[in-house]
Design goal:
single chain, alpha+beta, five-stranded antiparallel β-sheet, 19 strands
């Protein structure tokens, strides 16, 4: 789904959204080596790409474990933008919801929403809230999904999170990226998964660096989700659960990492 908007307005909104999020917390793997090592900057206009022990790194925050290893990245260095830190946007892990009746006191009929449906459950995510979170890791009737929205590209979609034997958890890298030949040259956010720390660029629909490079980003069946309005949510899905506005959370200090990627690649290859 793509609806073009004014890039200047969208750029301003992205900066405002980033500034309003929690800037003081970091998410690090407690088992990661945070011992200072010799590094040197590489040529990059904002100084966010550098080398550590022969590995090409992308700055991800104030702690050494925040940085992304992009040694195998398919992206071009000068085309990364921003770099505000990997935990600046509150990409939700355990979202809370309310009823349509409760939410109706907040939303105007023309407010935009992404809606994910199943025979037993419906979830509704306002575009306004997704602009702040950009990623909401969730479940729909026990099925791991995520709702995402990138304000610069006006890309909104519902994606699957199950890859073979694993469920991935996604967050924002703090970077956007553009390619003049992709998505009409608009910037688009770069995601990362907490499980392998691979980087994903939704505008091309795959992981672009890290252990899962080349793995497809799986969009949920388009018959099961839609971009709609609050008026339609109320009339068609009166029992929907609606994302509560203004949520935040304490960033996790550590998380489990996946070391065996075989089932992820097998699953990705089967789904192509």
């Amino acid at each position: 789904m793509k609806i073009l908007s004014c890039p200047i307005i969208l750029l301003c909104l992205l900066i405002i959204a980033g500034c309003k999020t929690n800037a003081g917390e970091h998410s690090n793997d407690s088992s990661a080596d945070v011992t200072p090592v010799k590094s040197r900057p590489l040529a990059f206009e904002n100084g966010k790409i550098f080398e550590i022990d022969g590995r090409k790194m992308l700055w991800g925050g104030d702690q050494p474990a925040d940085h992304f290893d992009i040694s195998n990245s398919e992206l071009k260095d000068p085309q990364y933008h921003y770099g505000i830190g990997r935990e600046r946007f509150p990409a939700l892990l355990k979202p809370a919801f309310q009823s349509v009746q409760e939410a109706d006191e907040i939303w105007e009929n023309d407010a935009r929403f992404l809606v994910a449906t199943s025979p037993k459950e419906v979830k509704a995510y306002s575009i306004k809230d997704l602009t702040r979170h950009e990623v909401v890791n969730d479940e729909l009737d026990g099925r791991p999904i995520m709702a995402v929205y990138c304000i610069l590209a006006d890309l909104g979609a519902i994606y699957e999170r199950t890859y073979g034997d694993h469920v991935l958890t996604f967050a924002l890298s703090g970077y956007t990226y553009f390619d003049k030949n992709v998505w009409e040259g608009l910037d688009g956010f770069i995601l990362w998964d907490r499980d392998t720390e691979s980087l994903w660029w939704p505008l091309v629909g795959r992981a672009v660096s890290g252990p899962l490079k080349g793995v497809q980003l799986f969009e949920m069946d388009k018959t099961l989700w839609k971009d709609t309005t609050w008026e339609q949510v109320k009339s068609r899905y009166p029992n929907a659960r609606v994302l509560i506005s203004g949520q935040d959370y304490e960033r996790p200090a550590s998380w489990k990492k996946i070391n065996d990627f075989s089932s992820i690649f097998d699953y990705s290859n089967r789904m192509k």
